[in-house]
Amino acid sequence: MSEEAPPSSPVMRAVFYDGCPGCAMERKLESSQGIPYKEFFFVGITTIASSLPISSLFPFLYLMIEDLHVAKKEQDIGLYAGFLGASYMIGRCLPHSFGV
C-alpha cells in the first residue's frame, strides 16, 4: 500500500489589496452568506427611479399635443402621441448603443 503523495502545487490563497474594487467585491462575496437583500433593494429602487420619467410623461402627452395644436384633427392626437413616446424611447436607447 502506498501513501498518497502531497500535491505538487500548494493551494492558492486569494490575495486582496487595499483600494482595489475587484478585491473588495471578492472579499464581500467570500464573506457573504444567503440572499443579498440589500443589493436587491438597491436594484429595485433604481428600476423604479428609471421608470418614473416615462410613466409621468404619457399622461400629459395627449393634452400637450392638443394644446400646442400639433394635430389638425382630434383623431390624429393619438398618432402624434405615439410618435413622441417612441422617439423618447429611441432617445433613451441610442446612447446605450454607442456606449455613452
Automatic annotation (TrEMBL):
Keywords: Membrane, Transmembrane, Transmembrane helix, Transport. It is found in: Membrane. Coiled coil: none annotated. Its main location: membrane. One of its GO terms (cellular component) is membrane. The chain crosses the membrane at residues 40-65. It comes from the Eukaryota. It is a multi-pass membrane protein. This is Os12g0132500 protein. It comes from Oryza sativa subsp. japonica. The lineage of its organism: Eukaryota, Viridiplantae, Streptophyta, Embryophyta, Tracheophyta.
